[in-house]
Design brief:
Oligomer: single chain
Number of strands: 11
Strand content: 15-25%
Low-confidence stretches: none
Distance between the termini: 30 Å
Helix content: 40-55%
Order of helices and strands: HHHHHHHEEEHEHEEEEEEEHHHHH
């Protein structure tokens, strides 16, 4: 019979271990470490993400029950307190940099289209307990926020940042890298004329929404396509001033496309693309829901709703490892040429994490039991 490593072992092959070891050395993360090196910490946290463990106690029990299999991965079981200390003390920047390396590696492998780059920008809240003082939003609310640029064609993030929940979305957006010529789609949380001007100067196309109280000085009324939900299509200019004492830095003409959604809601869409069909602009804004679905998938499938630690460092490490787990699942599925959905594959990996099976065998039914073996099992069951 052909030997197979565990499913966990096969999935972990997608990690760039050489670059990870370089990061460990760069951050001096294993200095004076005796019992839990950074590699063991990473494997333990990935085991929790892929195996569904939601507490330090569950992780420790899982690691102890599979100690022999972890040994072959170069990892070791850990005590609960040791793992908690590592999450609080090890630099979160190491895991964030590993995530960036994984994103750069995954992007060309998973992207289905090479042209017409479309990026979605959004943020999602992550509630925390009142013991997480660094993330205090108000007297009764504590939380973090995951900011993201997401590529819907590759179905993975290309940039992430974690902040306390009271940090404005636009503050983080101004720190995000801009890819010249790309299309950026976002909602009202990123309403800033100065930032829009930076995107336009980089040759980017922007698609967002007007605020209700934003007027448009009309330049031209465009013809409407017949039988479409487009209600109006106009070119104009934004207000000349942001405030009484501040000039609007975004002076280029913009376009307002009013569209009626399937639910009857009317949206005023804004874009600096004056030539594309109005239906294309409406479809681009509709794609924004892909990042909402991604946030929902990650929260429901991976472990970023219940946190293993309260410190900012521990929370950032857990979020980075959750997104790394997502990427290695996607890369492992692509390498095995599996056509199943990401959710189905994640569930199969969870159910078979420590079983010795190949990844492509996860979608096949188990081999039938030989008649003599089946008879023996029946005799044992009735003994």
């Amino acid at each position: 019979m052909r030997h197979h490593n565990t499913v966990f072992h096969a999935v972990l092959k997608q990690l760039p271990w050489g670059e990870f070891e370089a990061l460990v050395e760069k951050h001096d993360a294993d200095r004076r470490v005796r019992t839990l090196p950074t590699k063991s910490q990473l494997i333990a946290l990935l085991c929790a993400q892929l195996g569904g463990a939601s507490s330090l106690r569950e992780i420790v029990m899982m690691l102890e029950s599979h100690a022999a299999k972890l040994y072959h991965l170069g990892a070791f079981p850990a005590k609960r307190s040791t793992l908690a200390d590592a999450n609080n003390a090890r630099p979160a920047e190491l895991f964030a940099e590993l995530l960036a390396i994984m994103i750069a590696r995954a992007h060309p492998a998973l992207r289905r289209k090479l042209e017409d780059t479309v990026y979605l920008i959004d943020a999602t809240p992550l509630p925390l307990t009142s013991l997480s003082g660094w993330a205090r939003f108000s007297a009764d609310v504590h939380g973090a926020k995951l900011h993201m640029i997401y590529d819907p064609d590759a179905d993975h993030p290309i940039y992430t940042q974690v902040t306390p929940a009271n940090v404005n979305d636009i503050t983080v957006a101004k720190q995000m890298p801009i890819e010249p010529g790309a299309t950026y789609v976002y909602d009202l949380g990123f309403y800033d004329y100065g930032w829009w001007a930076e995107l336009a100067d980089a040759g980017c196309r922007i698609v967002t929404r007007f605020k209700k109280n934003t007027p448009l000085s009309l330049i031209e009324e465009l013809a409407l396509p017949e039988g479409s939900p487009i209600l109006s299509d106009r070119i104009g200019r934004l207000p000349a001033r942001q405030t009484k004492n501040r000039k609007n830095p975004f002076q280029d003409p913009v376009r307002e496309v009013r569209v009626k959604t399937d639910t009857g809601k009317i949206l005023r869409l804004l874009t600096n693309d004056l030539d594309a069909p109005a239906g294309e602009i409406a479809d681009l804004y509709k794609r924004r829901w892909a990042i909402e679905l991604f946030f929902r998938w990650v929260k429901q499938t991976l472990k970023i709703k219940q946190f293993l630690g309260r410190s900012e460092n521990a929370v950032k490490i857990q979020i980075a490892v959750a997104l790394i787990a997502y990427l290695i699942l996607r890369l492992a599925g692509a390498a095995a040429k599996l056509t199943t959905s990401a959710l189905t594959f994640a569930r199969l990996v969870r159910a078979n994490l420590m079983h010795r099976r190949s990844l492509d065998a996860l979608l096949r039914p188990p081999d039938p039991i030989a008649p003599n073996t089946q008879q023996l099992l029946l005799e044992l069951a009735h003994a």
